[in-house]
Design brief:
This protein has about 260 residues and is α/β, with parallel strands linked by helices. It folds into two domains: about 150 residues, NAD(P)-binding Rossmann-like Domain (Rossmann fold), CATH 3.40.50.720; about 90 residues, ProC C-terminal domain-like fold (Orthogonal Bundle), CATH 1.10.3730. The protein is about 50% helix and about 15% strand. It contains eleven helices and eight strands. Strands 3-2-1-4-5-6-7-8 form an eight-stranded mixed beta sheet, sandwiched between helices. Helix 6 crosses helix 11, helix 7 packs antiparallel against helix 8 and helix 9 packs across helix 10. The two termini are about 30 Å apart. The relative contact order is 0.10.
């Protein structure tokens, strides 16, 4: 991927568009002067060497690669002719064929980074339409490697499922942390200490998982085999329906992703 490539991010003023922009600049994938970002109301103060515009078609016209980083509801009002250029959508639910028809290009990609793109730790699954070239795939892979790690998946159904699992992923440790913190406070631990303890546990677990790269099943099994307090906690959570609750949540996210696409 050449740094001379001109990239435009529609919705670059939002958190995800801005995170992608920062990641590809930091990784040296694009010269900041070849980056154009659009905003809706007030121009952000980030990326002073890049171009900002409120005209999405002007952004598309000057870009080689167009990244769509807007809410699906806002996309329905977005009129943009890509003129055969590579379009990468990071919107949940919007199908490849809808993107291709709306934006006049067969070179469309659906990708789903998550909030951890802000710190270069996103996991991004993606899939390209039949018109996507080998060079396009290399560009997509490089962009999302800059945001963390990435995989090209086999079907749009995979993307719909992963919308919940990895796209929403950073919310799930936060949900667990909130429940743990609430329980700690209920047992008399001060909120400040409870928050610090819980956040440190989650951050440490993430770093450990990244370093050891083991299967989660193996990690859980190791704790269960030790038969200590952690094993007791795991068994108690599972008896209360932990695994089923996670499956229900992922199923709800999958159904929501499919329905968002159907509405397009």
């Amino acid at each position: 991927m050449s740094v001379s490539l001109r990239i435009g991010i529609i919705g670059g003023g939002g958190w995800l568009g801005g995170a992608i922009a920062g990641s590809i600049i930091d990784a040296g994938l694009v010269d900041s002067r070849n980056l154009c970002l659009s905003y809706r109301s007030e121009q952000p103060r980030r990326f002073p060497n890049s171009s900002w515009t409120s005209d999405n078609q002007a952004l598309a016209d000057r870009s080689d690669v167009i990244i769509l980083s807007v809410r699906p509801d806002d996309w329905h009002r977005l009129a943009l002719d890509a003129g055969g250029k590579l379009v990468i959508s990071v919107m949940a639910g919007i199908r490849l064929d809808a993107l291709s028809e709306r934006h006049n290009t067969g070179r469309v990609v659906r990708a789903l980074p998550n909030a951890a793109a802000e710190v270069g730790r996103s996991y991004t699954p993606w899939i390209g339409a039949s018109g996507v070239t080998a060079d396009d795939r290399a560009i997509v892979g490089a962009i999302f490697e800059a945001c963390g790690s990435q995989d090209e998946v086999a079907s749009e159904s995979d993307i719909d499922y992963l919308t919940g699992l990895s796209g929403s992923g950073p919310a799930f440790p936060a949900l667990l942390a909130a429940a743990m913190m609430s329980d700690a406070v209920a047992h008399g631990v001060s909120p400040e200490i409870a928050r610090r303890a819980v956040n440190t546990v989650l951050v440490g677990a993430g770093h450990l998982a990244e370093r050891r790269d083991e299967s989660p099943d193996d990690i859980v099994a190791a704790f269960l085999d030790y038969r200590g307090t952690t094993a007791a906690a795991i068994e108690g959570m599972r008896a209360a329906g932990f695994d089923a609750a996670v499956a229900d949540g992922l199923s709800a996210a999958f159904k929501k992703s499919v329905s968002m696409g159907d509405a397009s």
